[in-house]
Structure formats: C-alpha cells, structure tokens
From TrEMBL:
<dbReference type="InterPro" id="IPR001810">
    <property type="entry name" value="F-box_dom"/>
</dbReference>
<dbReference type="InterPro" id="IPR036047">
    <property type="entry name" value="F-box-like_dom_sf"/>
</dbReference>
<protein>
    <recommendedName>
        <fullName>F-box domain-containing protein</fullName>
    </recommendedName>
</protein>
<dbReference type="Pfam" id="PF00646">
    <property type="entry name" value="F-box"/>
</dbReference>
<feature type="domain" description="F-box">
    <location>
        <begin position="20"/>
        <end position="66"/>
    </location>
</feature>
Amino acid sequence: MSSKRLLSGIMEKNEERGINMSLMDLPEATLDCILKWLSPIELCVMSMVCASLRDRCGSNHLWEKHMEFKWGRVIGEVAYKEWQCHIRKAKEGTLLGDYFTNLNGSLGSLSGTWPDDLYLGSYLEDCGNLNGQFSNKFMKAMYFSLETGRFWFPAQFYKGLTIYNALFSYDSKSDIFQARQHNGGWRFLGKNIGWDMVRIPPIETPPYTLHITDCFYDLKPGDHIEIQRRGITETHYGWRYGVIGHMESCNGNENYCHCQHNEELVVEFKQYPEASYMRKVVLNRRNSGEQGSRATGFFGGIRKLHNHHDIHLWNNRLTAQALQTMEPRLHYAPPVEAQYPVHGHQ
C-alpha cells in the first residue's frame, strides 16, 4: 500500500468517527511508516509543513533507502569516507591550505594537492549547506549534493577493456556523468558517461599505489583477473582485464598441465590479435613488485575475479569490442557508368 493510500485511509476512518486528527497526531510508528514510503521530493515537501516534520523528514534512516536505491551502484565506502571528511572539515572549520581554495565555499580542489587524509580526493562545489539547512542531515545532504552534481565522488570508469580511477559529477537533466582524472592536473577523462560505465572500486588501493597481490600462487590457466598497468612509471595505474594462459611449452591438456606450479605466469589480453606483442605478458610469481617494460607497459598487482557477474561484464565488453573491430568499413563505390564506361563509335 502506498503512503498516500495509507494516510487517506486513516483520515477517512477518523472522519467517520468524528475525530479531527492532524498528521502529527498519528502514532510515531504509523508516521514513520508513511514517511519511509515518500519519494525524495515528497519528503522535501512534507518537511515544509512544520519544524517537527522538518527534522523527521531529514532523518538519516529515511534517506539511506533513497541513497541505496539511486546511488548504490556507484557510491561505495571510499565515497562515503570522502563525504564524512567534508562534513567533518566543515563542522570543525579547519579549512586550511588547498582544502579551502575558493571564495564560493568549495571544499577540495581540482588543481591543487589533496590533504593526506583523502583517498583519491573529491570535490564539493558548495559547502554552505553543510552548516546550514543540511546540518546534521548526513544522508540527505549527500543525496542532493550528488543529485545536483556538486559532489565529485571517487569511483571507477570503464574505458575499453581498462578501468580508471576518476572523480565523477552527475547531470540529473541528462542522467549521465562526466569524469576527471588526476594526471598532472584534473583533466577531463570523459563526458556523456552512462551508469553502466561507472563502478564502485572493489578495493581501496589508490591509483598511484602498487596493489599487493595475495593470489599469485593460486592462479592457474583459465582464471580471470584484473591487473594494474601503466604506460610509464610516473603515471597512475589503470586496471586491465586478462586471463591466465598456458606456458609456451604446455599443450593445454589439463591432465599434463603444470603451469600453475611454474614460477612464470602468463597473462593473456584477448582484445589483441594473436600475433601482437601486447597479447601476452610473462610475469614472475616471486616478484611482488612492478614488472614490465616501456614496450608492453608496467604491470602491478593482480586481483583474481571470483564474481561471475564481473566476469560476464568483461566478456560482454570483449565481445562488443571484437564485433566493433569486425564491422566492414564502407568503401566508396564509383557509379556503374564509371566502372563500365560506354565508348562511342569513332
């Protein structure tokens, strides 16, 4: 039953009994039941009725549901930690250095150095409401800062068969994101980014930090992985999809395969042709540091994929890229007359 029907039913029964009853006369449990079914806009409208409802309609437990429903696919622990940091800094008033850089009350900077207690960094365009109408309303403030695009939150962006860490801002009018990446300044990584191109970081390893691999000796041919890679050692890592392959000396027969026990580990990137030097890279299981070269790139930590949904997503992207590559190019064809000229009599 919807909140409107529930409230209407209660009021009708009271009218039949001759009881003049306002919304605030309802038992707390009944009122909470009604409020939890209201949409974000309806909660905002209800909050304007009186001071008591203003406080109730801003309660975190009511907005947690809306946060999860709208933002649960892209907002993870990292983003929540960033938001908590913004709330704390605004309340403490310790806006020092590059953290408080703009006269309009922005928290963070898209060009400066981030404080040590920030993971990737984030950017809040206007912190005035944190000490104003949204004070002590953690979830409601976060919801509307995301909805209006004022909170640039950290997440990850699918670009081809690589994932990059970035900051995202939402455009509610077009229901898409734009992303910035820290690479010698906060440059645009992409615009018109759909929801399916954004994901919550599965681990909290910062983009410049080598991920410590804890599955090196468990990896065997056929395992699906994500591996850190960067073109040069001075830049951040992206995460590239790969599959563990067989050694050159192995024929792939499971009954005779000993690749899992070899010190060398073959990683295949199936988006490249078989003949490409980028197709395979051989790593040393004993080397927990960065491996590679300028030719193939530098590879860092490995994350083994156990979730079938993640593997399915990567396979879909691999298939889509393969189909895109196979699409026939349209060539210009001259008119029939030009192909078969008709010569007049001499």
